[in-house]
Write a structure and sequence with these properties.
With 156 residues, the chain is α/β, with parallel strands linked by helices. The chain is built from 5 helices and 5 strands. The protein has helices at 17-31, 43-52, 61-83, 99-110, 132-140, and strands spanning 6-10, 34-42, 90-97, 114-118, 145-148. It has a 5-stranded parallel sheet with strand order 3-2-1-4-5, sandwiched between helices. Helix 4 (99-110) crosses helix 5 (132-140). The longest helix has 23 residues, at 61-83. The radius of gyration is 16 Å and the shape is globular.
């Protein structure tokens, strides 16, 4: 029996994520593949929140992280419902850390056949042409990587 294909879709929940989910859903339908969608809470943002809120006794960092995970899972599920064809088996995961490293770790853990990423995301000023996470993945990804350019909205 042949093992079912798996596609990893990395989304940052920016305005460009819908195109990544739509294209991944189309590929999953055509290839009869499952989808694992990952979102990474950037360690840089976690460190900034932690430093900023350090003196506030009423602020609970563990509660903040739990809230972030729940909010992001909800946003990812909404993205799937709005942009992925019915019948595609999609599982959403949220992790925290350095985005490209967490994506590479997820590749190792999940063993997908390829990865779909956007070329631009939340940090619109830095890395204007190709986002820093995508650029790091181009250099290090051990499996095929499909990049969806910013603004791409045409499906075959």
């Amino acid at each position: 029996m042949t093992k079912k294909m798996k596609i990893l879709a990395a989304v940052d929940l920016s305005e460009y994520s819908a195109a990544v989910v739509r294209y991944t859903g189309l590929l999953a339908t055509k290839m009869d593949a499952d989808v694992v969608m990952i979102n990474v809470i950037n360690q840089r943002d976690i460190d900034m929140i932690h430093r900023t809120m350090l003196g506030y006794e009423s602020f609970s960092f563990p509660d903040y992280m739990t809230d972030q995970e729940i909010t992001r899972e909800t946003q990812m599920n909404d993205l799937v419902k709005a942009n992925c064809p019915d019948g595609v088996n999609c599982r959403c995961i949220v992790v925290s850390g350095i985005p490209f490293r967490e994506i590479l770790q997820t590749i190792e853990n999940e063993k997908p056949q390829f990865v779909v990423v956007g070329t631009k995301g939340r940090s619109n000023l830095a890395d204007v042409i190709v986002g820093s996470t995508a650029r790091q993945l181009y250099r290090r990804c051990p499996i095929p990587l499909l990049s969806i350019p910013a603004g791409f909205d045409k499906l075959p």
